[in-house]
Structure formats: C-alpha cells, structure tokens
Write a structure and sequence with these properties.
The protein is built from 4 helices and 8 strands; from the N terminus they run E-H-E-E-E-E-H-E-H-E-H-E. By secondary structure, the chain is α/β, with parallel strands linked by helices. The protein has a single domain, classed as Rossmann fold (3-Layer(aba) Sandwich), CATH 3.40.50. The strands form 2 sheets. It has a 6-stranded parallel sheet with strand order 5-2-1-6-7-8, sandwiched between helices. It has a two-stranded antiparallel sheet with strand order 3-4. The chain is globular and about 50 Å long. The protein binds pyrazine-2-carboxylic acid and zinc ion (ZN). Zinc ion binds next to loops.
Length: 219
C-alpha cells in the first residue's frame, strides 16, 4: 500500500499536542501503554516547521479534583459515577498542579509553542477537550478559549496528536470539527487508555467528520 500524501496548508494549519505529561507515560499515575513511544515522532513533527501554529494542552488539576476517585469516599479508580447528569469516570489522582507528573514531558521542544492551554483547572468540573470543559453544574460546556485563539490567528485546519486517544484526543478532535475547523487525528501519534475502544473511537470520530490519518501520510 502506498501512503497517500497529505498537503499541509502551513499558513492555515495548527498542530495540537494533547496532554504529553509524565503522569500519562508508562510508570505514571494514569499511565497510557506506549505513551512514551510517541514522544520522539511528535518532537520531530514540531521541529519540521510544517505548521504555522503550535498549540498544546496540559491537564492541570487542583488537589481534590472531582474527577479523582480519592474525592469520592468508597469509590475506586475506573469506577463511573454520575456527575451533573453525565457519566464521569473516576481516575487516580493525576496531573496535580505543580507536581512533577503534571509537567510537560521531556523530549519535545515546548519553547516552540505559541499557546499552551491548561485545562480541568476547576475543582468541580473535568475537561477532556482542548476546546471545551466537560459539562458543569449548569449543564454547560464552557469554551477554553483555544477555538477563538486559533480562529483569530487564521487557522482552518488542526492536526491532533498526543494522549490519550480515547479521551482527551478524541474529545478534542470532535470539538475541533464542531468549532468549524477541519480536524485530522494523527492516529499513530496517539495511544489509548483502553485499546479495546479503538474501533469504536475511530468510527465515532469518522462519523463526527474527523479525518483519521497516519504520520507517514504527512511525510
Ligand atoms: C485524560 C483522563 C483524565 C487524557 C485526562 O489526557 O486523555 N484522561 N484526564
Ligand atoms: Zn485529567
């Protein structure tokens, strides 16, 4: 099979690198299998200068965050509870503000990024997506501001990679199309929390209008 070649319209293109943080790497508090394997290829993409805008997210929870199992007596990590009428998976404590596990990972030149959005910073609301929080007590999903930032900078197409494929990357990709961007998920530069979700996630994203590509197509 010969790889298709995807033209990047550099002037209107952003790379969005999601939650590349030690707590999501093997050995971290909420480890994602092989999360470390995508650091080097993402670093190369960052160096390649093929995107005018480089954006990233950093999961950045206060201590005692509502998404932590430790905040729900009697619950354990990976349990699901209902929060404001929607399912909320309870996670191990992770990416706590100011802790080493919450830093941006080594191996990627973060100095090149124009914008790094910290998300899930409010105690009572989670945020998987780079563009919007999860539902809050008012039943709303307030924007993070990233969509406005990218639009004001003339971005039309967002290429998305990072962790985790089935949570923050999937939600960010879906919301990117909802916000009016062309969205491409660079599938091989993501890794899932739950590998058995891959087929369902891929179908969900395609249905939402997200283009699923691989990094070799960008070569
Ligand atoms: C994430 C679960 C909880 C992610 C963040 O980055 O995908 N997943 N917080
Ligand atoms: Zn989180």
């Amino acid at each position: 099979m010969t790889a298709r070649s995807i033209e990047i319209d550099r002037e209107h293109a952003a790379l969005l690198v999601v939650d590349m943080q030690p707590d999501f790497m093997p050995g971290g508090a909420l480890q994602v299998g092989e999360g470390d394997r995508i650091v080097e290829p993402i670093a190369q993409l960052v160096e390649s200068a093929r995107f005018r805008v480089l954006a990233a997210t950093q999961d950045w929870h206060p201590k005692g965050h509502v998404s932590f199992a430790s905040s729900h007596p009697g619950r354990k990590p990976m349990d699901t509870v209902e929060l404001y009428g929607h399912p909320q998976i309870l996670w191990p404590d992770h990416c706590v503000q100011g802790t080493p596990g919450g830093e941006l990972c080594r191996g990627i030149n973060w100095n090149k990024f124009q914008v790094i959005i910290r998300k899930a910073t409010e105690s009572d609301c989670d945020s998987y997506s780079a563009f919007r929080n999860n539902w809050n007590a008012e039943g709303k999903r307030p924007p993070t501001g990233l969509g406005g930032y990218l639009k004001e900078r003339g971005v039309r197409e967002v290429f998305i990679c990072g962790l985790a494929r089935d949570f923050c990357v999937a939600w960010s990709s879906e919301d990117a199309t909802a916000a009016g961007f062309r969205a491409c998920i660079i599938w091989d530069l993501t890794r899932p929390v739950n590998p058995s979700s891959d087929d369902a996630i891929r179908r969900l994203l395609v249905r939402a209008g997200v283009k699923v590509i691989t990094s070799d197509e960008l070569a």
